[in-house]
C-alpha cells in the first residue's frame, strides 16, 4: 500500500509545483515586461509588488464562472481541465537529478511528445464549446500552428536522441556529464568522459545540435502559443482567441497550463540538449569541480536554474519581437525550420556512425 | 481483485461505453470528442498488453493527428449540411439499411466460420508463446527496431514509399496554381 501513497504524494507535489511556478512566473513576466519597456511593473501590492499574482489568484478564485447561453456546456467546462492535465501529465517523465525522476519510462521522450499533442484537443474543445467566432478562429489558428511546429520540433528532438541512443530521459541526461556509461567526445575530437562540465553537453558533443536546439526552441515557443507566435490570441484581432469566454478559475486553469507548458518545453530542451541535471563546471586537473557539483541536491539546482534561464529567454523574446503574420509563420515553419531539422537529423546519423 | 484488475476493467468499460456513445450520439461534435476518450482509454489497454510504444504511438497518430484532422474538417464545413444529416429520420428496419445489414451479417458469418475452423492449440506460435514472454520492465523499442530493420524490412519500406507518395500528392494539391 505504501507506494500508492508515494504515487499520490508525488503527483500532488508536481501539481503544487506547477501552480507555484505559474504564480512566480506571472510575476516575473510582468517585471521582465516592465523592465524591458523601461517602467517598473507591478509595485503596489507588497514590497516591489511581490503579492500581485497572489491577489490575482484570489480574484480568479472568487469570480463567477460564466457559461455563455449558446455554449456547448460539457465541452466548455471540460476544455480547461484537458488543457491543464495534458501538460501536467508530461511532468511525470522529466528527470530532476540522478535517480530523481517521477516515472522512469523507457520511452520518456515519445511519451512527452504524445502527451503534449493532447493539448490541441483541449484547445479545439474550448474554441468550439464557447460558440463564438473569435474563439473558434483562435482555436483553429492555434491548432494549425501547434501541429505544423510539432514537425520541426520532433525532428530536432530525434537528432538529439540519435546522438544519445536512448529514448529514456534519465539515460539521455546521464550521458551528458561525468559518470556517463560510454566515452563522450567534445566536438568529436577531445575525450571528456572524465572531465564533464559544459564540454560534455549534447550541444557541444555534436555542434550541429546547437542548430537543432535553436529549431526546437523556436518551435517550442510556437507550441506554447507565445509571442512572437501568439496569433491564436492576438488581442488586436481576436479579443483573446480560444479563451475569450472563460472566466474565473476556468481561465485560471488555461493560464496555469500555459505557464506549466513553458516550463515543460524548457525542461525537455534542457534535458535533451543542455545537459539536463549535469553541472556546467568541468574537472580541471585535481580541481574536481564536476565531481563536487554532481549529486541529488546539485542536480535539482542545475536543472532548475537552467530551465529558469530558458524561461527567462522565452519572456525576453515575447517582449522584444513583434507578432508574426500567419503566412510568414507557416512558410517559416515549412520552408526553413523543417528542411534545417531534416539536415540536422542526417548529420546526426553521420556523426554517430563516423565521429563518435 | 487487485488494483491492476480494477483499473483494467475501468479502462475496458470506458472504451466500450464511449464507443457506443460515439455511434449513438446525435451531436456530431460531441461524438468526435468522445472518440478521443475511446482512443485514450484504448492506449491504456495497450499498456496492459505491455505494448507501451504502441500506446504512445496511438496517442501521437490518432489523437494528435487523425482526430485533430477530423475536428478540423468538421469545423471548416458548413453548419447547414450537418444539420440536415442530424435531423434525418431513420427507422431501425428499412430498405436503405439493407446494404449495411447485409455487410455486417456477412462479416459476422466470416468471423464465426473462421473462429470455428481455427484450431488455436495447433498453431505453432501459440504453442511456443509460453516461452516467449515479456516483463513489464523490458525495453520493447529495441526489439521493435531490430524487427523493423530485419524481418519486416519490405513492409516497412513499402509503407514509407506509400507515405512519401501521400506527401508529394499533398504538396502538389496545396500548390498555388499558375496564373494563365
UniProtKB/TrEMBL annotation, chain A:
NDH-1 is composed of 14 different subunits. Subunits NuoA, H, J, K, L, M, N constitute the membrane sector of the complex. It holds the Pfam family NADHdh. It is found in: Cell membrane; Membrane. It comes from the Bacteria. InterPro entries: NADH_UbQ_OxRdtase_su1/FPO (IPR001694), NADH_UbQ_OxRdtase_su1_CS (IPR018086). It is a multi-pass membrane protein. GO terms for biological process: aerobic respiration. It comes from Arcticibacter pallidicorallinus. This is NADH-quinone oxidoreductase subunit H. NDH-1 shuttles electrons from NADH, via FMN and iron-sulfur (Fe-S) centers, to quinones in the respiratory chain. The immediate electron acceptor for the enzyme in this species is believed to be ubiquinone. Couples the redox reaction to proton translocation (for every two electrons transferred, four hydrogen ions are translocated across the cytoplasmic membrane), and thus conserves the redox energy in a proton gradient. This subunit may bind ubiquinone. GO terms for molecular function: NADH dehydrogenase activity; oxidoreductase activity, acting on NAD(P)H, quinone or similar compound as acceptor; quinone binding. GO terms for cellular component: plasma membrane. It is an enzyme of class 7 (translocase). Its EC number is 7.1.1.-.
From TrEMBL, chain B:
It catalyses: a quinone + NADH + 5 H(+)(in) = a quinol + NAD(+) + 4 H(+)(out). One of its GO terms (cellular component) is plasma membrane. It is a multi-pass membrane protein. InterPro entries: NADH_UbQ/plastoQ_OxRdtase_su6 (IPR001457), Nuo/plastoQ_OxRdtase_6_NuoJ (IPR042106). The chain crosses the membrane at residues 6-24, 31-50, 56-77, 98-118, 152-174. Keywords: Cell membrane, Membrane, NAD, Quinone, Transmembrane, Transmembrane helix. This is NADH-quinone oxidoreductase subunit J. Its main location: membrane. GO terms for molecular function: NADH dehydrogenase (ubiquinone) activity; quinone binding. Gene3D superfamilies: NADH-ubiquinone/plastoquinone oxidoreductase chain 6, subunit NuoJ. The keyword Membrane applies. Its EC number is 7.1.1.-. It is found in: Cell membrane. It is an enzyme of class 7 (translocase). Belongs to the complex I subunit 6 family. NDH-1 shuttles electrons from NADH, via FMN and iron-sulfur (Fe-S) centers, to quinones in the respiratory chain. Couples the redox reaction to proton translocation (for every two electrons transferred, four hydrogen ions are translocated across the cytoplasmic membrane), and thus conserves the redox energy in a proton gradient.
Amino acid at each position: 500500500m505504501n507506494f500508492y501513497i508515494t504515487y499520490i504524494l508525488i503527483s500532488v507535489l508536481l501539481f503544487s509545483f506547477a501552480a507555484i511556478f505559474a504564480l512566480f512566473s506571472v510575476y516575473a513576466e510582468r517585471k521582465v515586461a516592465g523592465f524591458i519597456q523601461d517602467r517598473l511593473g507591478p509595485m503596489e501590492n507588497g514590497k516591489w509588488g511581490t503579492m500581485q499574482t497572489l491577489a490575482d489568484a484570489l480574484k480568479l478564485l472568487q469570480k463567477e464562472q460564466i457559461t455563455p447561453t449558446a455554449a456547448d456546456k460539457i465541452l466548455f467546462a471540460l476544455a480547461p481541465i484537458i488543457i491543464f492535465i495534458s501538460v501536467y501529465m508530461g511532468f511525470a517523465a522529466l528527470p530532476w537529478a540522478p535517480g530523481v525522476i517521477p516515472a522512469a519510462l523507457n520511452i520518456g521522450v515519445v511519451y512527452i511528445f504524445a502527451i503534449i499533442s493532447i493539448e490541441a484537443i483541449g484547445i479545439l474543445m474550448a474554441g468550439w464549446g464557447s460558440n463564438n467566432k473569435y474563439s473558434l478562429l483562435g482555436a483553429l489558428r492555434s491548432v494549425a500552428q501547434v501541429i505544423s511546429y510539432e514537425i520541426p520540433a520532433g525532428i530536432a528532438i530525434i537528432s538529439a536522441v540519435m546522438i544519445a541512443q536512448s529514448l529514456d530521459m534519465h539515460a539521455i541526461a546521464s550521458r551528458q556529464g561525468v559518470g556517463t556509461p560510454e566515452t563522450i567526445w567534445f566536438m568529436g575530437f577531445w575525450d571528456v568522459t572524465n572531465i564533464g562540465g559544459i564540454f560534455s553537453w549534447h550541444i557541444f558533443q555534436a555542434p550541429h545540435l546547437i542548430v537543432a536546439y535553436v529549431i526546437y526552441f523556436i518551435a517550442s515557443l510556437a507550441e506554447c502559443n507565445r509571442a512572437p507566435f501568439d496569433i491564436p490570441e492576438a488581442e488586436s484581432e481576436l479579443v483573446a482567441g480560444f479563451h475569450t469566454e472563460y472566466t474565473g478559475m476556468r481561465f485560471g486553469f488555461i493560464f496555469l497550463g500555459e505557464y506549466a507548458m513553458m516550463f515543460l518545453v524548457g525542461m525537455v530542451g534542457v534535458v535533451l540538449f543542455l545537459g539536463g541535471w549535469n553541472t556546467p563546471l568541468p574537472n580541471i586537473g585535481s580541481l574536481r569541480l564536476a565531481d563536487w557539483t554532481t549529486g541529488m541536491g546539485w542536480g535539482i539546482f542545475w536543472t532548475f536554474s537552467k530551465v529558469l534561464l530558458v524561461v527567462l529567454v522565452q519572456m525576453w523574446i515575447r517582449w522584444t519581437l513583434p507578432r508574426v503574420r500567419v503566412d510568414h509563420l507557416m512558410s517559416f515553419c515549412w520552408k526553413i525550420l523543417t528542411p534545417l531539422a531534416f539536415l540536422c537529423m542526417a548529420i546526426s546519423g553521420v556523426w554517430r556512425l563516423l565521429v563518435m | 481483485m487487485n488494483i491492476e484488475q480494477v483499473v483494467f476493467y475501468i479502462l475496458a468499460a470506458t472504451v466500450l461505453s464511449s464507443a457506443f456513445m460515439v455511434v449513438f450520439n446525435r451531436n456530431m461534435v460531441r461524438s468526435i470528442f468522445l472518440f478521443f476518450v475511446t482512443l485514450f482509454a484504448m492506449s491504456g489497454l495497450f499498456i496492459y498488453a505491455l505494448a507501451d510504444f504502441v500506446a504512445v504511438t496511438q496517442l501521437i497518430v490518432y489523437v494528435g493527428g487523425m482526430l485533430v484532422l477530423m475536428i478540423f474538417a468538421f469545423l471548416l464545413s458548413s453548419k447547414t449540411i450537418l444539420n440536415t444529416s442530424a435531423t434525418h429520420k431513420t427507422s431501425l428496419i428499412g430498405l436503405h439499411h439493407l446494404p449495411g445489414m447485409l455487410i455486417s451479417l456477412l462479416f459476422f458469418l466470416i468471423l464465426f466460420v473462421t473462429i470455428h475452423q481455427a484450431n488455436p492449440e495447433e498453431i505453432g506460435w501459440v504453442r511456443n508463446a509460453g516461452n516467449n514472454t515479456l516483463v513489464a520492465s523490458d525495453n520493447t523499442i529495441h526489439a521493435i527496431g531490430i524487427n523493423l530493420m530485419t524481418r519486416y524490412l519490405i513492409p516497412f519500406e513499402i509503407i514509407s514509399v506509400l507515405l512519401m507518395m501521400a506527401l508529394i500528392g499533398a504538396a502538389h494539391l496545396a500548390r498555388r496554381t499558375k496564373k494563365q
